[in-house]
Design goal:
- By secondary structure, this protein is α/β, with parallel strands linked by helices.
- Helix content is 42%, strand content 9%.
- The protein contains eleven helices and five strands, in the order ββαβαβααααβααααα.
- Strand 1 and strand 2 (8-10) form a beta hairpin.
- The radius of gyration is 18 Å and the shape is globular.
- The protein starts with a strand and ends in a 29-residue tail after the last helix.
């Protein structure tokens, strides 16, 4: 579902901090309602939950100020893998998870590159539009979640308690746990391949201009090709 606020709508893209956003909005005292579409009556519960929580603007078109969040596609894969691995839950009804599931992060990436090239770019496009701009709305970043949520709510004209937002504890930090941090790092080769695969979103959202060395396993580090992190779709 989309989250309906008095003056705006929040669309929750998976693994971009949306669980924290929902909690922070509640803590801030903003009244909300969930709006969405129902799936088939025989849809598995886990799939119905995903349809409810992650409705797109196309599925739930509302003529209000809208906002959502994205994150670096490279960290999206880390987060998704760590979450599924930590919880030992790969949804067999989800084509992406069924095809890509692996206890090994590098194999997970290879599966994604093989079966769903540009998967995050395509998902973002479904929420933001072809140019990744979300017409009539605001695209925040998971990397600066607190400040961008406050900015989005101000832009929408919502009345809220900013202090409560800042005090809302983090949510879903599987990829940052010590047991997973070292397990979901990229080799230079896989980083380069994923940059090419997700080039459209990385370029459009400005992630190609950032320092990407934090994603590398320094124990197996080899230099990236000298291209200033340029990518192609």
């Amino acid at each position: 579902m989309a989250l309906l606020l008095p003056h705006s709508v929040f669309y929750h893209i998976p693994k971009t901090g949306g669980s924290w956003v929902r909690g922070a909005i509640q803590q801030a005292g903003i009244p909300t309602n969930e709006v969405g579409v129902l799936g088939p009556v025989n849809m598995p519960l886990i799939d119905a939950r995903g349809l409810f929580l992650h409705a797109t603007p196309q599925a739930v078109p509302l003529q209000m100020f809208v906002f959502t969040f994205v994150r670096n596609p490279l960290s999206w894969y880390q987060s998704h893998w760590a979450y599924c691995t930590k919880n030992k839950r790969w949804n067999e009804h989800n084509p992406f998870e069924r095809q890509c599931a692996s206890d090994n992060f590098h194999q997970f990436l290879r599966n994604a590159l093989t079966y769903f090239p540009g998967g995050v770019s395509n998902m973002y496009r479904g929420y933001l539009g072809e140019e990744y701009t979300l017409p009539g709305g605001f695209v925040g970043r998971q990397e600066r979640l607190v400040e961008d949520l406050i900015l989005a709510l101000r832009m929408a004209g919502e009345t809220f308690d900013e202090t409560s937002i800042r005090r809302t504890p983090p949510a879903n930090l599987a990829a940052r746990l010590d047991d997973f941090q070292h397990r979901c790092l990229y080799t230079a080769e896989l980083l380069w391949e994923m940059m090419q695969s997700e080039g459209h979103a990385m370029r459009s959202l400005g992630y190609d201009r950032e320092d990407l060395s934090c994603f590398l396993d320094q124990r197996k580090h080899s230099p990236l090709p000298a291209t200033n992190h340029s990518t192609r779709s």
